[in-house]
Amino acid sequence: MTLSAIDTPDSQSTQKAQQNPYTLVYEGAITQNEKGKLNIHPVTYKLNGIDISANVYTPANYDASKKYPAVVVAHPNGGIKEQTAGLYAQRLAEVGYITIAADAAYQGASGGEPRHTDKPACRIEDIHGMADFITQYAGVDANRLGVLGICGGGGYTLKAAQSDKRFKAVATLSMFNSGEVRRNGFQNSGLATIQERLKQATDARAQEAAGGEMIYAGVASITDEEIAKIPTDLYREGYVYYYRTHAHPNSTFIYTKSSLLDLMTWDAATNMDLINQPLLMIAGSKADTKYMTDEAFRKATNAKNKELFLIDGATHVQCYWKPGYVSQAINKLLNFYQTNL
């Protein structure tokens, strides 16, 4: 697949983004800044020479001369700051935290070429970069910094927190181990084709190096009929979320095939013993990705006050948007951050 073959979500599905002045597509999204209320602040900053696009949320009656705890929010694979990462950032700001959600480098509204590069080292650096920026933001207490990673952002958050001890409390929601899945296939369905796929990624890199067309992996567009036939909740509900109900022109399910050289040799669940901060991992009880949370949680042998919290009846993607499940997650996160920040 080349870039010319990629379709963006249709105009009808992006109406929600166009209607919101900040192009936020989640339910209850802020539409204007008012004095004394929760506010949103679009910002840009440089990370290793790349322009990063982010939204900072400040709580009601924010006073820059005071000190507030802060939370960095890392978005899912294929996601952007205007979707579930923004929802959780806004909800946490509503209860008193300064929060930041940024588009990953090479993705969304952030800069970086080639577009849609999806390498673990870059995604981890994005999380360090959000910490760099928000700890310098007026009113932030740098000693009370938490992090929340959602889906793929959850896996990268675990890795970032292994070394970055500015994060005093580490949380994940619907954690997705991108390296394990790109290597082994979802639910280990691709074990027989690992070497074949590594060869394809190698050939893609060689083609890039020779000045040829960029090759992309992932799903660029999909019909309702194709979605309905998908057997796994993760992908069926994921395509509905990203391409229908919460579509945004900056959000895409594609990535450079050469990124697999890095993804397939990486694993979110290695060196989990390096996390010595408090750890909360949240997953839906019916999530078909729960096995990834279970594995990483089991390996976090040195985490303080570690807890696995299951949202009863929820699937992976339902935790992104379904109000009752989101409220359960927010209440748990609030208790966790209040206790540990």
Short description:
With 341 residues, the protein is an alpha/beta fold. Helices cover 35% and strands 21% of the residues.
Explain what you see.
With 341 residues, this protein is α/β, with parallel strands linked by helices. The protein has one domain: Alpha/Beta hydrolase fold, catalytic domain (Rossmann fold). It is 35% helix and 21% strand. The protein has twelve helices and ten strands. It has helices at 15-19, 84-94, 120-134, 152-163, 178-184, 194-209, 224-228, 233-245, 260-263, 290-299, 318-321, 323-340; strands at residues 39-47, 50-58, 68-74, 98-102, 140-150, 167-173, 216-219, 253-256, 278-284, 304-311. The strands form two sheets. An eight-stranded mixed sheet has the order 1-2-4-3-5-6-9-10, with helices on both faces. α3 (120-134) crosses α4. The longest helix is centred in the C-terminal third of the chain and has 18 residues, at 323-340. The N and C termini lie far apart (46 Å). Residues 2-8 have low confidence and may be disordered.
**How much helix is in the residues?**
25-40%
Number of helices, where a helix is a run of at least 4 consecutive DSSP H or I residues:
12
- Beta strand %: 15-25%
- Apparent shape: globular
Largest sheet: 8 strands, mixed
Distance between the termini: 46 Å
Structural domain count: 1
* Rg for CA atoms: 19 Å
CATH superfamily: Alpha/Beta hydrolase fold, catalytic domain
What structural class should be given to the helix and strand makeup?
alpha/beta
CATH hierarchy, class: Alpha Beta
The CATH topology comes to: Rossmann fold
Summarize the helix and strand pattern as letters. Answer: HEEEHEHEHEHHEHHEHEHEHH
Detail the poorly predicted runs.
2-8
Number of strands: 10
Q: Mean pLDDT, nearest integer? A: 95
User: Per CATH, which architecture?
Assistant: 3-Layer(aba) Sandwich
Q: Order of strands in the sheet with the most strands?
A: 1-2-4-3-5-6-9-10
